[in-house]
Recover the amino acids of this structure.
């Protein structure tokens, strides 16, 4: 019997849930068995996410793509707990699985031994992420949001340490406040509309009378604040750089997509609930996203320049990424949204690779000799011999060469230099911003677009300066110890795989951009999504046989 894609929709939630629950019954000393089970589960997630991604993009582009709806309990919409798969959710599932597998392999080097229940927490985090991307109603979005956060609390504190515990407690407190705001916002919206199904809300919200409009807008605003905290918009982002800097390398690597959960929900709900309103692009919601995104880019740029450690630099790079996406959303243009989606994938892959690479580089700063540390004295030359010898060059240790190459690739991606995908993403965003809207005959470029361009370029320049400075300190500055860092094969391969994935994005930029454009169009015209959910058929029970 062929398994239909509609039944595969629930697999990204069930697989990590079952695998994570089973590992609770295994002794923590059997780490090899736990690791094998986790890797098999993650490989299955990656394979299924690719199948679901191909399913959503095989339909006619004008139809909005295929939409699969899974009705739990076989209840009809809008009463059912439904899971909805479209292009955007399928893309986020694939991105999550693509990050999860290298991160899990990286943790096999040392980090999965640093504490208990690492694999269970990691899999439950994947379950929460996948559920948040698939759910079709606000209440279950809250449920998966809490599962994701509960698992992240354990991963932040994994390995203990004073700085990690201090930052972890701040992280827990901030996210508990965000969860409370989430619940209050959902309650207000339900009190006004009488439903939490996203598609049903998209139908009912335009019909709300003026008497209840204030309560609806208050609920939406409170709900937005909860996700802006998770997305890291300034000034709600004070917790993020320090938390990500001190988190274990595998945890920080997978956390690179957690900030994108807030971006995903804001993008999904804003266009679904209010995108049909002609005045939405000039309304307060879009303006808050635009100016808040610009402020976040500026704050991240200053933080990148002021960072004295690579961990804090990576944390502020997350803010620059979030700010770019928020500002792009605030412009409410399908072309800009397409470029932002490409940027989301590229920057998330690069930042995740950077967090893992930082752990290897900082390990080497205490153990490894830099290239310039291998001086002529190390080879037994005296001053008189140096005067008479022609210096040909210094051999670069292979470990340093590999780490330096990966570091340079991360720098090119985050700065947005050609020819890698970071440049393509920023180029698409800027070209869309400065292209006149022929349909509405708008040929005047607003001042905010110029500010956006300036901040995007300045953030890239600041990133280039900061990474050049850090690279010189890590790979060229002389150190006393001449012992090379001990980097395992399973630790450097995941970093290389993520960077090679960005290379694939660059080579296949044409097909990938066509997918992003189709996704952006379907988000700005969500009627196929609404109809697909509301008209989802329930399964008929089998006919009963009458026994005489």
């Amino acid at each position: 019997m062929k398994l239909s894609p509609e039944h595969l929709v629930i697999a990204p939630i069930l697989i990590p849930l079952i695998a994570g629950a089973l590992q609770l019954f295994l002794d923590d000393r059997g780490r090899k068995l736990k690791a094998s089970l986790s890797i098999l589960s993650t490989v299955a997630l990656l394979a299924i996410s690719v199948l679901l991604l191909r399913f959503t993009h095989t339909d006619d582009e004008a139809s909005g793509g295929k939409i699969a709806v899974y009705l739990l309990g076989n209840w009809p919409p809008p009463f059912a707990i439904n899971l909805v798969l479209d292009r955007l959710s399928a893309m986020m599932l694939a991105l999550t699985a693509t990050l999860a597998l290298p991160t899990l392999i990286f943790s096999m080097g040392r980090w999965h031994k640093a504490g208990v229940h690492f694999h269970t927490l990691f899999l439950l985090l994947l379950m929460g992420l996948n559920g948040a991307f698939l759910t079709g109603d606000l209440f279950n979005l809250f449920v998966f949001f809490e599962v994701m956060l509960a698992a992240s609390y354990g991963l932040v504190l994994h390995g203990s340490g004073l700085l990690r515990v201090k930052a972890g407690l701040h992280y827990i407190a901030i996210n508990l406040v965000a969860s409370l705001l989430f619940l209050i916002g959902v309650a207000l919206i339900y009190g006004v509309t009488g439903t939490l199904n996203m598609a049903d809300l998209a139908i009912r919200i335009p019909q709300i009378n003026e008497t209840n409009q204030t309560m609806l807008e208050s609920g939406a605003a409170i709900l937005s604040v909860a996700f802006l905290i998770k997305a890291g918009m300034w000034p709600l982002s004070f917790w993020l750089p320090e938390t990500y800097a001190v988190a274990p390398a595998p945890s920080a690597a997978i956390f690179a997509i957690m900030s994108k959960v807030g971006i995903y929900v804001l993008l999904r709900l804003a266009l679904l609930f209010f995108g049909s309103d002609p005045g939405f692009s000039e309304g307060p919601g879009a303006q808050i996203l635009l100016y808040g995104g610009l402020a976040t880019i500026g704050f991240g740029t200053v933080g990148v320049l002021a960072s004295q450690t690579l961990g804090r630099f990576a944390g502020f790079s997350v803010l620059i990424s979030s700010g770019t996406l928020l500002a792009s959303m605030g412009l409410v243009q399908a072309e800009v949204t397409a470029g932002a989606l490409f940027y989301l994938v590229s920057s998330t892959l690069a930042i995740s690779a950077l967090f893992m690479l930082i752990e290897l580089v900082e390990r080497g700063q205490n153990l490894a000799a830099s290239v310039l540390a291998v001086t002529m004295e190390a080879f037994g030359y005296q001053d008189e011999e140096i005067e008479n010898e022609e210096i040909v060059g210094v051999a670069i240790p292979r470990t340093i060469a590999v780490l330096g190459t990966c570091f340079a690739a991360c720098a090119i991606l985050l700065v947005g230099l050609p020819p890698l995908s970071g440049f393509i993403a920023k180029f698409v965003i800027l070209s869309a911003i400065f292209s006149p809207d022929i349909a509405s005959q708008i040929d005047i470029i607003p001042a905010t677009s110029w500010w956006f361009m300036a901040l995007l370029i300045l953030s890239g320049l600041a990133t280039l300066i900061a990474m050049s400075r850090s690279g010189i300190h890590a790979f060229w500055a002389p150190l006393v110890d001449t012992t090379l860092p001990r980097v395992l094969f399973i630790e450097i391969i995941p970093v290389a795989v993520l960077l090679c994935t960005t290379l694939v994005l660059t080579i296949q930029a044409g097909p990938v951009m066509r997918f992003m454009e189709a996704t952006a169009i379907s988000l700005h015209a969500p009627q196929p999504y609404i109809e697909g959910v509301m008209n989802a058929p329930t399964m008929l029970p089998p006919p009963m046989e009458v026994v005489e």
Summary: The longest helix spans residues 334-367. The beta strands are 68-72, 81-85. Confidence is low (pLDDT under 50) at residues 366-395, 478-482. The two ends are 32 Å apart (CA to CA).
